[in-house]
Amino acid sequence: MDPTSAPAAVAHDLSFVGLFLQADPIVKGVMLLLAIASVACWTVVIEKAVRLASAKRQARAFEALVRSGGSLETGSEGIASRVVKAALDAWRDQDASESRAERRERIERAMRAALTGEVKRLQSGLPLLATSGSTAPFIGLFGTVWGIMNSFSSIARSQDTSLAVVAPGIAEALFATAIGLVVAIPAVMAYNKLTNDLGRIQSAFVSSIGVLGNRLARDRSVHGRAAAAE
């Protein structure tokens, strides 16, 4: 028998696919779980990026509409349309006994409630990113610890501590931690970025809501005086 054929008999495939296929069933389960989490996180990131880009445009359009003093009946869409609808519904709710400050507060409260509902819809999915970012490294570490334990058990059974025997099992175990980091790092970065963008969008709407609330409260007070004069 050719002695050079012995290493080939114990050769291990150290490619990503090979490390997965050669791993312990528990470690394989950890890797699959992390892979599914990665796909879910990237789905959320792409969907939120598209929706927040649209929300940014709506916030700019809403601000321009409010600053220009144009008609509120047209020209708004999405979040802006629902905020405007809430404002107009509150504006039409006549109450001659309330002061201008009370009227403004009521109108702004209605708009803020509508905005809060829209922000909550935009926040859906973000907890998945936060959870994946915080737990994926530990899930991967569990797979690594389990794989290393199996490697040490194999070493004990074979009574061979050579690097050729130890390295493949350790590599398979560490691969689980690597996948956990691949899931966690983008998830944390995306969560921070999307949360920051969402906060800016909300702040832009809140600023415009203050201006619009003052405008509508002033218009209501004018109508009220005109009606009293008649």
UniProtKB/TrEMBL annotation:
Q: Which InterPro entries match?
A: ExbB/TolQ_transport, MotA_ExbB_proton_chnl
- Ranges where the MotA/TolQ/ExbB proton channel domain occurs: 79-202
Membrane-crossing ranges are 26-46, 128-149, 169-191
Tell me yes or no: is Cell membrane among this UniProt entry's keywords.
Answer: yes
Sections of the chain in a coiled coil: none
Q: Which UniProt keywords apply?
A: Cell membrane, Membrane, Protein transport, Transmembrane, Transmembrane helix, Transport
Q: What does UniProt give as the signal peptide span?
A: none
Cellular localisation: Cell membrane; Membrane
Q: Does the keyword Transmembrane helix apply?
A: yes
- Protein topology in the membrane: Multi-pass membrane protein
* Family, as annotated: Belongs to the exbB/tolQ family.
Its name, as the record gives it, is Biopolymer transport protein ExbB
